[in-house]
Design goal:
Helices cover 37% and strands 16% of the residues. By secondary structure, the chain is an alpha+beta fold. The protein has two domains: 5-371, ADP-ribosylglycohydrolase fold (Orthogonal Bundle); 407-549, Jelly Rolls (Sandwich). Helix 7 runs antiparallel to helix 8 (182-197) and helix 12 packs across helix 14 (298-311).
Amino acid sequence: MRHPWWLVLCLAAPLLAQPAGERRLTVAEYRDKMLGGWLGQMIGVAWGAPTEFHWQDQIMPADRYPSWSPGLINGAFDQDDLYVEMTFLGTLERGGLNVSIREAGIDFANSEYPLWCANRAGRNNLREGIAPPDSSHPRFNACPNDIDYQIEADYSGLIAPGLPQVPIDLGNTFGRLMNYGDGLYAGQFVGACYAAAFFESDRRRIVESGLEAIPAGSQYAEMVRDLLAWSAAEPDWQACWRTIQAKYREDPVYQQASNGGIDAKINGAYVLLGLLYGDGELEPTIEISCRAGQDSDCNPSTAAGILATARGASWLSDEYVGELSQTAVFSHTPYDMERLLAVCEQLARDAVVASGGRIEGGAGAEVLVIPAQTPQPNELELSWAPGPIANTFFRPSERRRITQPGPTAMMAAAVEKLAPGWSVAKLGPDMDPGWREEWRGRQGVLLTHPQDRGTAAVLSRELTLPAGRPRLALSISHHPEGDWDLVVRINGEEIARQLVGPTTSTDGWLELSYDLSRWAGQAVRLELLNMANGWTWEAAYWHRLEIVTE
């Protein structure tokens, strides 16, 4: 393989001897390891992508584990596991390491890619004008412990060689846009592991270094300590997986403020499972983190990224990187590999100097002189018992800079498109409510979802019913794996209740007509409730919502 210039520059000499109180890393060595971190992420996510969330609460059988071919690495250019963190790099490129959390929030609010879980909730809050740190507070974000910042924090360590405080501080700028408590600590831990991997080859010591960067009293830190102990005592990774499952999935104490399989602790445990049981080799590290299940592309991506940072890009054979595109651009970003590496290097130089270090030597022989840092973790916050909100809102001048509409505006437009004059309230964020161009063969469908188990989403309209025999005509549907209760109210009086699900619909659709003659000619408030009945796929799909007369 003929290596591109940015890989040639990474083929470095060994680490220099380290004087007390500071460590020295050649720029060539930094480039090799930083590139290794990005390539490890790309290989891991591309390898695991076909399996994502296909194996939940069970180990993937060995014969279902996908095989690798060299061209697969280029699939990583379209993976959110990578391009979301590059949004943060873009903010740092423009605003520097001390960019404000509000600037970071505006940039994230203006991102246009699809998001899920804590990312989506946080971005929706930002677009609604709730500024950080409240955008991630559990009062406004139902999934603060989700994996989101854990899978996006790699950048923070890759620009901070040997500087664990930098990932902590960057977590407080970017991780707080969407995560709180364990969800935030997960990303700070990952970033600190990357930072340690520039100087440490022992995988346990890398993990121990990451542990020093997060509050010792957090459940996430407890999970890390458990994995260090369990992996030392149990040689079989599958037996260790079962121990993880019993504590971090089946014990309700560790499911508080959890979004099931998206929880940062369980997925972080699978990252460590691969890293600690993978013998320091790429393939078993990725395979174990992938076969552990749940978010089985993100987890091997993180594990492989940390490992390849410790080993360097020059350790990776052509089997993995030989067909890497040198011109492809990461989706939703301005970054190809060359620009990505240049931006990271500049930010790393800035981080070293800002932390009290320096850069010695001339071109081609530069050395980063990096001061020893003792990380100062955040104060402990619990997502299930959060502290007070900060009452942070974007100022009008800041809101004008947010160009993407929030969910309130988008939902109002969708309701008006389906049923002019109607409005929606108490809408929950699950299942991405809003407009669907097509659903089950029908064109133009509105999706709503209850706010929570006991709070229905409500479509309502105040109007004067026509004289004669008015009626309410509905065409409604349900998710194939769920059902929900429709309640019809007029002036607060319940006039009908109907189960909407597989047992009551035909080809997924239910056609209903309600006689409103009793209120003909009167001013009324009409309400349609999308009520949960089991909290599984409770979305309502509305194709027709119309007052007609006979």
